[in-house]
Amino acid sequence: xxxxxxxxxxxxxxxxxxxxxxxxxxxxxxxxxxxxxxxxxxxxxxxxxxxxxxxxxxxxxxxxxxxxxxxxxxxxxxxxxxxxxxxxxxxxxxxxxxxxxxxxxxxxxxxxxxxxxxxxxxxxxxxxxxxxxxxxxxxxxxxxxxxxxxxxxxxxxxxxxxxxxxxxxxxxxxxxxxxxxxxxxxxxxxxxxxxxxxxxxxxxxxxxxxxxxxxxxxxxxxxxxxxxxxxxxxxxxxxxxxxxxxxxxxxxxxxxxxxxxxxxxxxxxxxxxxxxxxxxxxxxxxxxxxxxxxxxxxxxxxxxxxxxxxxxxxxxxxx
Length: 319
Fold this sequence. Notes:
This protein has helices at 58-65, 80-83, 99-115, 130-137, 169-175, 197-205, 212-218, 220-231, 263-271, 295-318, and strands at residues 38-43, 86-91, 119-124, 143-148, 179-189, 208-211, 235-241, 277-284. With 319 residues, it is an alpha/beta fold.
């Protein structure tokens, strides 16, 4: 044990009791956060959604379901709370009625967070919410990115030129020099398409695309070995869209695509993040209205824990 924040144990207080925070950690507002290494943040916003809305409710249900996440990783035996000071910072400010204002509010919040030396692990929210986080994390220099998703999110625009949707964040991030496309890998892409423009753009700028067929043929370890080679020793951002999972496992999302990964395959890949310098991460597109059972949110909470373990190790290594 350390002096860092520790989650409330289900052996002491029932998991269904108390105020819902992520992993039953203390809630520490950003303004009061001192010496926090990793901040869990909710982004309750889905203003970039173009089809089925609902991810604005994701952070709350993910927090509720995260009460099932115990403190020790069952395979690696890592206890992230012994390696890093982790806190639930609550939700960042958003504006559900105005996309550009919401983006600015989220960006402003995360720049304050990064200025405090905190590494963000956020729960969305639709995938457009990654853009303002990257504007904070990649402000001084572009970062590498490992992106798990059924979709590239590299489209240029929707609806006759609108540039900010959950299908465009990473094209904007490349244009704004927040991520280095030659150090970006996207894993799990599948489903029918409007056209091939997003894949053409990826090839043009050097993004490594791993379609689901290739990923399944090679297997999790081989795919992640290449991912590790691509990002190298760089500061890396990890973005996990819950729709990378097959909708059998995660039906509560806005744009489900059949033929995806199992939850275990996803865990196998995330465990290969160990040793990387993860400076920020997110799990997005959990939409509770489409899965009242909460299993999609639980999957999201567990994926956050997998990422958190590697983030905590990265913090401890560089302390």
